[in-house]
Amino acid sequence: xxxxxxxxxxxxxxxxxxxxxxxxxxxxxxxxxxxxxxxxxxxxxxxxxxxxxxxxxxxxxxxxxxxxxxxxxxxxxxxxxxxxxxxxxxxxxxxxxxxxxxxxxxxxxxxxxxxxxxxxxxxxxxxxxxxxxxxxxxxxxxxxxxxxxxxxxxxxxxxxxxxxxxxxxxxxxxxxxxxxxxxxxxxxxxxxxxxxxxxxxxxxxxxxxxxxxxxxxxxxxxxxxxxxxxxxxxxxxxxxxxxxxxxxxxxxxxxxxxxxxxxxxxxxxxxxxxxxxxxxxxxxxxxxxxxxxxx
Length: 295
Prior knowledge:
The protein has 295 residues and is mainly alpha-helical. It has helices at residues 2-25, 31-65, 68-74, 81-86, 94-97, 115-137, 144-167, 181-194, 196-199, 222-231, 247-259, 284-294; strands at 98-103, 106-109, 215-216, 274-275. It has a two-stranded antiparallel ribbon with strand order 1-2. β1 (98-103) and β2 (106-109) form a beta hairpin.
């Protein structure tokens, strides 16, 4: 009994301490955490009541084994508050709660439902009503469908952050030519927004040299083109893109530039630099669309 009272006291002190901490730190707990706290509290109370009930039943069984001595003592012992709440009766009083019918010598006792069960049952009704009002009536919290969408959006953001971080691992030493049509398409979009103003929409060259012939001012290999994009040539008006593009984007742009070799668009600027023979591999899914756009 002392252990049970001590456990209840510790639970009460812990609850008060958590409440004071939340009050001093002005914490706003999500509703589901509050529900979990209520459920755990009810379970703890239920567990204490069950333990106490088992303890009292064991005491009653022990008293029943004493026979007449117990009857004499029971007449002078008053029921405690717990015994009144739990409606406990000794085995010697079974005659008072027996029902009239029996089956094969087995009789049914008219025992009331334990109060701890009623508390737990009514508690689930209260929690269910609070859940319904919070989520479905006031719509103060997201439903499962919305939570799923929120998790998907968060996963997409985390994926984008990872891809961006992983793209920075690509440099002029590890870069390779991409042949995937979707990647080249992304490189084409980057070219249209960042490079077309100087090199032309089709790479025919304007202020800057054309990018469709075999002549290069600073090398035509995938590593050299990547390096020119990354660090630029400020003395010649070529800006460095390393601060506004990650390695993956520069790799896509490099691969697209090498994929338009030999397209010979109308109005191409005269060759500049030294001739470099390159044989880039172009994705077949993009080749036809590039040819159509060039024509």
